[in-house]
Write a structure and sequence with these properties.
The chain is 33% helix and 13% strand. It has 200 residues and is an alpha+beta fold. Helix 2 packs across helix 3 and helix 3 packs antiparallel against helix 4.
Length: 200
């Protein structure tokens, strides 16, 4: 206790638990193929005993809590109601690579813009890979433009440091192709998925 009589705040020992407690949470029922969140399936044997669970005294399916790190949605964290501990649940298809929630939303937005009436996991991952390739290509183009401009400066005898100038052409390429550079908006703690396929 401090000299003025006020108690000290409790010491936090489980930082990992604290991080998961503050992650965005979604609520889903558990099926034989696991759980689906934003068109993506997750599965682990830890879920088996809860498959087809019903609300106590009701016929309605029981929903469970899943925390998700927005920086990497390749796994979710199932809050086991029996011991109140988190269990890591990976993609059902573990061959798929990591993705952030912002990349997932951009892939979904692109598919809707293209007129896709039905969106599924395969389409989302295919579009994500396509956008990643576009981003890598843009980086290469930007570097090539910068090298060319630097060479032109040297040939012209320019004394301007490269760091002080951002060439319009290079900036235009970077901004046009980098789909992950958008603003980040706060998460809604509603259990409703942020995804909605618009009728076109």
């Amino acid at each position: 206790m401090e000299p003025n009589g006020r108690p000290l705040p409790p010491v936090l020992f489980d930082i990992d638990r604290l991080q998961k407690d503050f992650m965005p949470v979604v609520y889903r029922t558990i099926q034989r193929t696991g759980v689906e969140i934003d068109y993506i399936r997750y599965y682990g044997p830890e879920l088996n005993r809860f498959i087809g669970s019903r609300e106590e005294g009701k016929t309605r399916s029981r929903q469970f809590s899943f925390a998700r790190d927005p920086r990497d949605i390749s796994r979710v964290f199932f809050l086991n109601p029996e011991d109140n501990e988190y269990q890591e649940i990976p993609y059902l298809d573990t061959s798929r690579g990591p993705m952030s929630i912002w990349e997932l939303r951009e892939a979904n937005r692109k598919l809707v813009t293209e007129g896709r009436r039905y969106i599924d996991e395969n389409l989302l991952f295919h579009k994500h890979l396509e956008l990643m390739e576009q981003a890598r290509s843009a980086v290469k183009q930007t570097k090539a433009v910068k090298r060319r401009l630097l060479l032109e400066r040297k040939r012209a005898g320019s004394s301007k440091p490269e760091e002080t100038v951002q060439e319009p052409e290079a900036r235009e390429i970077s901004e046009a192709q980098d789909f992950s550079a958008g603003s980040v908006e706060p998460f809604d703690d509603s259990p409703v998925s942020p995804f909605r396929v618009e009728q076109l």
